[in-house]
Amino acid sequence: MDRTLLTLLLILIVLLAFWGLLVGWRHRARRQADLPALPVAPADPGGDLAEPLTGLYVSTTKAGSWQDRVVARGLGRRATATAHLYAVGVLIDRVGETPIFIPVGDLEAVGTAPGIAGKVMGMPDGILVLTWNLGGTRLDSGLRVDDLEAQLEWMGRSRRLIPAQPIPAGTNDDMEGTA
Fold first, then answer.
1. Which residue among 14, 41, 152, 172 is buried most deeply as judged by most CB within 10 Å?
2. Do the domain assignments include residue 93?
3. What pLDDT sits at residue 176?
4. What is the number of domains present in the chain?
5. What is the CATH number of the domain that holds 106?
């Protein structure tokens, strides 16, 4: 009888933990409900500017806060994905989930990080991170890419699409050539 009671207690604790996780996920989604709808990819985005990257879409977080996962609009669900680079933007085509299209005008930076919410690789270039703007909210979307060499080429080509940011006055960079 004691074993049966302990087993039932353990099952109850596990069920309560899962219920708590579900409630927390739904709470987070409600808090982020003001996030605008994702942009829709054009019907004909043109040809790929680089070889598409295959891998795992890990998550999207608030920019600069790698643990603040965004779950609204389906951005919090991990999925196998292919990242396409077009002249009009980036398309992250997720298996079984809504694709994420980032128009080139909203793409702010492309880089790497050792981790993002839901995945830590332990190497500096383990996660490809796309920083972009969705209706005034800066986001970081992370992918664990299968081929790191292809990732380097893809990053170089994608960075050429990002409009040059003006250098703020008073920085050392705008003082070149003066002395």
1. 41
2. yes
3. 39
4. 1
5. 2.30.29.30
Which amino acid, 124?
P
Can you tell me the distance from the alpha carbon of 115 to that of 65, in angstroms, rounded to the nearest whole number?
11
Helix (H) or strand (E) holding 81: strand 79-86
Answer whether residue 177 is part of any domain. no
CB 60 within 8 A of CB 159: no
Q: In this structure, which amino acid lies at residue 169?
A: A
Identify whether 134 is part of a domain: yes
Return d(Cα 108, Cα 19) in angstroms, integer: 37
Average pLDDT for the chain: 84
Length of the chain: 179
- Cβ 141 vs Cβ 128: under 8 Å: no
- Structural domain including 109 reads 53-159
| Mean pLDDT of the region 65-75 | 83
Q: Which helix (H) or strand (E) holds 33?
A: none
Residue 170 has a pLDDT of: 45
